[in-house]
């Protein structure tokens, strides 16, 4: 299957992408991984991306698109893939369509994870990370530590990332609504979108997603 995963920040895209890719035996391709891989390998595209990220600027679409195309050329993506974080806007969606047309293949579905805005804010603003190791993540409501402000595993101090405050989360949501949400209508016009609720446990959402993608594949 060839799938695009969309949804607002805090919808659980990264978690669901990993589960779905494993269940469907296709590679999970995320924008973040593309950037990290290209930068760490010192590719020409990675060096270009780093010029922008190191100065706090957005990486231009043409660089992101080129990275995605390179990744889709790899052998493991020949029979399918799950794209997470790409395309992020209409220009990227159109570029992906053009690439797939050249390859004479099409997307099988666009999975839209739907979450109420207040829930997104609650999920992200309540998140706390361990300052000591960075690996352990807690939530003040859903997964609180045994001792407030202290990591259960290593005793490190828990903190809130600067961009996880409620004000900044709402700004990220505004960017999502203005830049990324329009691709949902773009793909709806192609009859590709299946929308599911991203509320519930990880397993519940995964089961919902697999059922929706099965329906999309049979259309």
TrEMBL record:
Q: In which pathway does it act?
A: Purine metabolism; AMP biosynthesis via salvage pathway; AMP from ADP: step 1/1
Highest rank taxon of the organism: Bacteria
Q: Which residues does the record give as AMP binding sites?
A: 31, 36, 57-59, 85-88, 92, 161, 172
* Protein's cellular compartments: Cytoplasm
Enumerate the transmembrane spans. none
Q: Name one GO molecular function term.
A: AMP kinase activity
- Record's catalysed reaction(s): AMP + ATP = 2 ADP
Annotated region (NMP), positions in chain: 30-59
InterPro entries xref list: Adenyl_kin_sub (IPR006259), Adenylat/UMP-CMP_kin (IPR000850), Adenylat_kinase_CS (IPR033690), Adenylate_kinase_lid-dom (IPR007862), P-loop_NTPase (IPR027417)
Keyword tags: ATP-binding, Cytoplasm, Kinase, Nucleotide biosynthesis, Nucleotide-binding, Transferase
Q: Under which EC number(s) is this enzyme classified?
A: 2.7.4.3
SUPFAM superfamilies cross-referenced by the UniProt entry: P-loop containing nucleoside triphosphate hydrolases
Question: Is Cytoplasm among this UniProt entry's keywords?
Answer: yes
The Adenylate kinase active site lid domain is annotated at 127-163
Fill in the subunit field for this protein: Monomer.
Domain remarks: Consists of three domains, a large central CORE domain and two small peripheral domains, NMPbind and LID, which undergo movements during catalysis. The LID domain closes over the site of phosphoryl transfer upon ATP binding. Assembling and dissambling the active center during each catalytic cycle provides an effective means to prevent ATP hydrolysis.
Family as reported in the entry's similarity comment: Belongs to the adenylate kinase family.
Descriptive protein name = Adenylate kinase
**Species, as recorded:** Streptantibioticus parmotrematis
Q: Write the lineage as a comma-separated list.
A: Bacteria, Bacillati, Actinomycetota, Actinomycetes, Kitasatosporales
Q: What gene, per UniProt, encodes this protein?
A: adk
